[in-house]
């Protein structure tokens, strides 16, 4: 959660672009990661992430702080846009269509080849999961959202999230084995 | 390697810097959708109804035969003036004035209203037929007496028949009454 997030959000709701800019800087990489791992294509991920923040900026006055971080609201928008993205495509992305360059840049710059291969392997495994499992895995273990925040973003109860998480981890382990 | 450590490696994924800068600039320059408050809805409703009202008035004026020239040239006679109508209206006003000027005077006891007496008299006509000769013999004596008092019948010899020139016409009688 961003320092002084409530104050920044209030300013953004009043229409201050600079305040929303701070929110953008903080949450844009997280949303981009979430979308990229789900859709697999860098261009699609960029387009969808951009659209997430356009929608958020245009509707930020509808946001009501209920004790959850702003990220839960952004993840909701992102999830809905990814769902719409797949609806319009009318086909699941085949595994071979994952863009390896999406990870290559970061991997080659900072990490070893082994690290990059691990990333690619786990990403492909995640993409073979159901959408709900993907969401839980990414929010709970990649973005490290709390159970409450994840439940809020997925519009489910905490108990349902726990159950989803258990099944998702189990299935992911099977895929990586 | 542990699954959770593998998943944490995905945190190193970051968007392209150029893309981020461009997207940020575009997002923040996008105009925001105006929030629809109740006041704004009411204002829009009033605005719409006022526009409809003005448009309706313009249509009525346009198709209702309204002419600006009538307002701009007040001295010009209007085509709607009908001389016959004007004359009828003037006559009606005249009659109303005459009726308003009529007063009914209640005669006192012992006094005979001369007008009533006159009305009771056989009227002379201005028709083509020769007027009936009025003499003191063919009217009632009390009426003749009243007429004499008022000077309507000139005093002649009682036995002598009144010649036509001694008779007084209605107009003359009215003049005498007014005097």
Topology record:
The complex is a heterodimer of chains A (177) and B (179).
Chain A: H1 5-13, H2 17-39, H3 42-58, H4 70-89, H5 101-110, H6 113-127, H7 131-142, H8 147-154, H9 158-176
Chain B: H1 3-9, H2 17-29, H3 38-63, H4 68-72, H5 83-101, H6 114-120, H7 141-149, H8 170-178
Put simply, the count of helices of chain A is 9
| Major sheet attributes of chain B | none
Which geometry of chain A do the CA atoms define?
globular
Strand content of chain B: under 5%
CATH class of the largest domain in chain A: Mainly Alpha
Average pLDDT of chain B, rounded to a whole number, is 72
User: Which fold name corresponds to the CATH topology of the largest domain in chain A?
Assistant: Rna Polymerase Sigma Factor, Chain: A
Q: Per DSSP, what share of the residues of chain A sits in E-state strands of 2 or more residues?
A: under 5%
Notable features of this structure?
heterodimer, A: 177 residues, Rna Polymerase Sigma Factor, Chain: A, Arc Repressor Mutant, subunit A, 9 helices, 75% helix, 0% strand, B: mainly alpha, 8 helices, rod-shaped
Commentary on this structure:
The complex is a heterodimer of chains A (177) and B (179). With 177 residues, chain A is mainly α. Chain A folds into 2 domains: 1-93, RNA polymerase sigma factor, region 2, helix turn helix motif (Rna Polymerase Sigma Factor, Chain: A, Orthogonal Bundle); 129-177, Arc Repressor Mutant, subunit A (Orthogonal Bundle). Chain A contains 9 helices and no strands. Chain A has helices spanning 5-13, 17-39, 42-58, 70-89, 101-110, 113-127, 131-142, 147-154, 158-176. The termini of chain A are far apart. Chain B has 179 residues and is mostly helical. Among the domains of chain B are: 39-72; 114-122 and 132-178, no CATH class. Chain B contains 8 helices and no strands. Chain B has helices spanning 3-9, 17-29, 38-63, 68-72, 83-101, 114-120, 141-149, 170-178. Chain B is rod-shaped, with a radius of gyration of 50 Å. Chain B starts with a helix and ends with a helix. The A-B interface holds A 15, 17, 20-21, 24-25, 28-29, 32-33, 36-37, 42, 45-46, 49-50, 53-54, 57-61, 102-103, 105-107, 110-111, 115, 118-119, 121-123, 137-138, 141-143, 169, 172-173, 176 and B 1, 3-4, 6-16, 19-20, 23-24, 26-30, 32-33, 35.
